[in-house]
Amino acid sequence: MATLYRKYRSNTFDEVIGQDPIVTTLTNQIKLGRIGHAYLFTGSRGVGKTSCARIFARAVNCLHPVNGSPCGECEVCKRLAIDNVDIIEMDAASNNGVDDARDIREKVKYLPVACKYKVYIIDEVHMLTGGAFNALLKTIEEPPEHVIFILATTEPQKLPQTILSRCIRFDFKLVPIDVLAKHIANIYDKEGIKYTEEAAEEIARLGEGSVRDALSVADTLASAAAEITTDVVLALTGAGDTGAIAKLFDCTASCDLKGVLTAIDGLVKSGKSMAAVCRQLIDYTRNVLVCKSVGREAAVNGGIINADRTSLDTIIGAADKYAMSDISFILSELGAAENGLKYSVNPRVFLETALVKLVCGNRDQKDLLKRIAALENNSAIPAEQKKNKVEDAPSARAETVATTTVQPQKPSVAKAAKPTDDYDYLPPPDDYYPPPPEPDLPPPSETVPQISAQALRRKPAVAGKVTAADEGEFWHLKASAEVGLELFGQIVRTLRRSGSTAQNRVMRLLARDVKVKERDEYIAFVSPDDVFLQMGEKTVLDVLDAALDGLGVKKRAVIERTIDDMFNEDISRAKDTFGVDGVVVVD
To answer: How far apart are CA 442 and CA 401, in angstroms?
Structure first.
């Protein structure tokens, strides 16, 4: 006994479902006599490409076509039903060489035996080799008047453009779920099989738009029970029920790791296939994503959602509950997991591991977003810690002042008549000598300003171009009033006077152990690891450049990391790559 998809294969264009535009075009060509010499039928598996090719091949030779379809009663139709001498079907997957193409090229010159046209149907044509395509190129472009080529493929992108440009192309679409469910119901009625409407819809949904796949599932279920119900379909196909899938998605989106593993265990104990569960979870997540994107009315009424009636409410509720970023992240990770399940020897462990990584990654992503938002809102430090820091600040300043030694200032050298570069540095004196040793001074008194040690670290106004300086120290001598002042201090003063939100943020970043150094071409702000990314933002660099412009400095700000930081990072990466024992650090 033939299977359902073979028994109920379309014999006329009226029996083809879901491809109305293509059927209309082909029947009109037959009615009007506008037959092309080469056709290309593309589309997914099981949507009617080969069936339409066979119907068209018989229709163009039929003596009395009915509405563009073969009549089945004329002499030619009867002969073609017994012996298809003039309709040659070729499987390009197994006959894909140059010799097979040359054989076709040699035989096309012979006239048909009993028909008007000799029709070559080449299925899976994308499997032909490059040499075979080249051998057929001229024949497909200008075949004899009695020859028609019909090429069928599921992957048209693999065909050369020279072949595509010589064919009339028809793209077959996936069959809608409602049309496919109605087709299954009609076949069950003809076979005398009892079924429920929900079961027919579920079978159509499992077919995923393919008529052959849906009829294969329907054939499998034909003898499963006295009446085919949704439970019978789910039990026999190994798919999980919609309620369990909805619960699994809810646990995944809410980062409930225990709930995820419990749901997987329940599906496994019910005998569900992990590949089918992953596919259903992807479909459910996609439905939630669509509903979140276009809204409830457009998703349901427009038929965009591929779901049964019972799961619509849970899908809409999930769309209202979870964020778009979480839903899209889950869908992306599940797609990768479905691809890996094809090659896994232990599907349950693979799917559980993928979901655990997904949940943990989603949780880490949420934590990172919260931390970033807290930093942007200046709320990274809890209120209690901020209060403690404020209370401890006076004592810390007092301790700093108590250990500070006041450095005497040396007289500056006379300024040169003409500046030597952007900084207008002073010319070097002829009798430059190292600074004398620091004298012992009494502790700070009321007459000594209570300032920090860093603000008092200054050097004499040396002349000449300064190419390097100690961390945090500069001689910005643009104006006589600024002789001996550090560039770092000048920048901080400039930012403090501005008082805007961006300037205040840059001041807080500079206070986090950021050092300033002068290079030949730019001003370097050396940042430790924890503030490197924040210091590198364009907004921060723009604020620093504006401060330098206000001080008359033409060099631009550049963010750098310390050599020790970069060295330690390289060592860490090397240990991760080669192992701890594989890296030896030599001083």
So the answer is: 13
Query: SS3 for 98?
Result: helix
Strand partners, 560: 526
Report the run of H or E that residue 454 belongs to, with start and end. Answer: helix 453-456
What's the CA gap between 313 and 222, in Å, rounded? Answer: 31
Q: What is the pLDDT of residue 323?
A: 86
Global pTM reads 0.56
Q: What share of the chain is helix, strand, coil (3-state, %, to 5)?
A: 55, 10, 35
* CA 521 centroid distance within chain: 40
Phi-psi region of 378 (alpha: psi -120 to 50; beta: other; left: phi over 0): left
Question: What pairs with residue 173 in β-bridges?
Answer: none
Residue located via tokens 């070729």 = 90
Tokens of 474: 């500069």
Strands 118-123 and 87-91: parallel
Helix axes 347-376, 242-253, angle to 10 degrees: 40
3-state secondary structure of 446: coil
Question: How far apart, in whole angstroms, are the C-alpha atoms of residue 575 and residue 573?
Answer: 5
Burial of 460 (0-12, 13-18, 19+ CB in 10 A): middle
470 touches 456 (CB < 8 A): no
HSE (side-chain half, CA atoms, 13 Å) at 420: 11
The amino acid that residue 391 corresponds to is: E
Rounded Cα gap, residues 572 and 583, in angstroms: 9
Please spell the DSSP secondary structure of 151-185, one letter per residue. EEES-GGGS-HHHHTTSEEEEEPPPPHHHHHHHHH
Residues in contact with 549: Cβ distance below 8 Å, sequence separation at least 6, in sequence order: none
SS3 462: coil
Say how far apart CA 4 and CA 214 lie, in whole Å.
10
pLDDT < 70 positions in the chain: 1, 238-241, 300-303, 306-310, 362-371, 373-486, 499, 529-536, 562-570, 580-587
Contact 238, 271 (CB under 8 A): yes
What contacts 24+ positions apart, CB below 8 Å, involve 348-352?
A: 348/264, 348/268, 348/274, 350/274, 351/264, 351/274, 351/277, 351/278, 352/260, 352/261, 352/264
Task: Give 261-271 pLDDT, tens digit per residue.
Answer: 999 998 888 87
Output the CA torsion 454→457→462→467 (10° steps): -40
Neighbouring C-beta atoms of residue 551, cutoff 10 Å: 16
CA distances (Å), origin 131, targets 99, 127, 135, 164, 286: 9, 12, 6, 16, 42
Q: Are 144 and 109 in contact (CB under 8 A)?
A: yes
> Where are any strands of DSSP class E within 491-549?
515-518, 522-527
pLDDT single digits (tens) 10-58 = 999 999 999 999 999 999 999 998 999 999 999 999 999 999 999 999 9
